[in-house]
UniProtKB/TrEMBL annotation:
Name assigned to this protein: 4Fe-4S dicluster domain-containing protein
InterPro entries found in the cross-reference section: 4Fe4S_Fe-S-bd (IPR017896), 4Fe4S_Fe_S_CS (IPR017900), PorD_KorD (IPR011898)
Cofactor: [4Fe-4S] cluster
Domain 4Fe-4S ferredoxin-type: 28-57, 58-86
GO MF annotation, one: 4 iron, 4 sulfur cluster binding
Keyword Iron: yes
Keywords: 4Fe-4S, Electron transport, Iron, Iron-sulfur, Metal-binding, Repeat, Transport
Taxonomic superkingdom: Archaea
Amino acid sequence: MMGWRDLPIGGVPPLTSLEYKTGDWKVFMPKIDTSKCTKCGLCWMYCPDSAIIWDGEGYPKPNYEYCKGCGICANECPVKAIEMVR
Ligand code: SF4
Ligand code: SF4
């Protein structure tokens, strides 16, 4: 491990964000009910971590390796198709 004086500005080496599985931080996770989803894309637009991806049928799908469980997607979904579960 590097000493703190050796760390680059910003704290982590550049171009390594994919290696940090920030999804480990979450306590709650979004579950999407595709029977309610209208594929509007608002959850994708509002996710601060770009953790919403799309499945083969055009429905949003959380990428749980990077989703931090903030719940913004559930808050913004206009048809309440996203539930945050422990
Ligand atoms: S809970 Fe937060 S981080 Fe996870 S998909 Fe929703 S908006 Fe993105
Ligand atoms: S915001 Fe809700 S309705 Fe819109 S794509 Fe996301 S889950 Fe589906």
